[in-house]
Amino acid sequence: MTVLTRREFSNLQDRVNRIFRESYSPEGPEEALTTSSFAPPVDVYEDEHNITLKIEVPGIDEKDIDVRIENNTLAVHGERKFEKEEKEENFQRVERHYGSFTRSFTLPNSVDPEQVSAHYDKGVLKIRLAKKTEAKPKQIKVNIGGEKTLVEAQGSSKVA
């Protein structure tokens, strides 16, 4: 039995969705290639200070990308416009996705909505969501044994 990883399953789902869009579009398959919507791939990772999203959107002008946070939801909208330089009927194959996209992400309460930055470089939109100060992990020192020791240090005592 073959087990699909999450990424493989996502790729398979994208392919199946594309086949249905192209085959069953009311405008016909050629029109579906130039006006469909798509979902660009996203990597999400987290460290102790930030949650970072990297969204692949090559060929999309930064003015055609809109990033918003509303009601604890991050929404990214954009559009890749079909290049009208070549005639559509001259294409032998079109594999790039064109049209608009929307990706939405529910944010955890640990994100500070006032500390968000977005940077677009080399076809990748990088969104950094800073965590609230109180949400960052705090190291707690664990004392060994049940006794507290008083230490004399220059005339004052400290609890260790």
Gross geometry: elongated
Main sheet, how many strands, which sense, barrel? 4 strands, antiparallel
CATH topology of the largest domain: Immunoglobulin-like
Count of alpha and pi helical runs: 2
The helical percent reads 10-25%
Any idea what the radius of gyration is?
25 Å
Q: Which second-level CATH architecture of the largest domain applies?
A: Sandwich
Low-confidence runs (pLDDT<50, min 5 residues)? 27-35, 149-160
- Which class of the largest domain in CATH terms? Mainly Beta
Order of helices and strands: HHEEEEEEEEE
Tell how many strands the DSSP assignment holds: 9
Mean pLDDT, nearest integer? 77
Percent of sequence in beta strands: 35-45%
Structural class: alpha+beta
Quaternary status: single chain
N/C terminus separation? 58 Å
How many structurally independent domains? 2
Trace the largest sheet across and list its strands. 1-2-7-6
Can you walk me through this structure?
By secondary structure, the protein is of the alpha+beta class. It folds into two domains: 1-36; 37-87 and 95-134, Immunoglobulin-like (Sandwich). Helices cover 16% and strands 38% of the residues. The strands form three sheets. Strands 1-2-7-6 form a four-stranded antiparallel β-sheet, with no helix packed on it. A three-stranded antiparallel β-sheet has the order 3-4-5. Helix 1 (6-24) crosses helix 2. The longest helix is centred in the N-terminal third of the chain and has 19 residues, at 6-24.
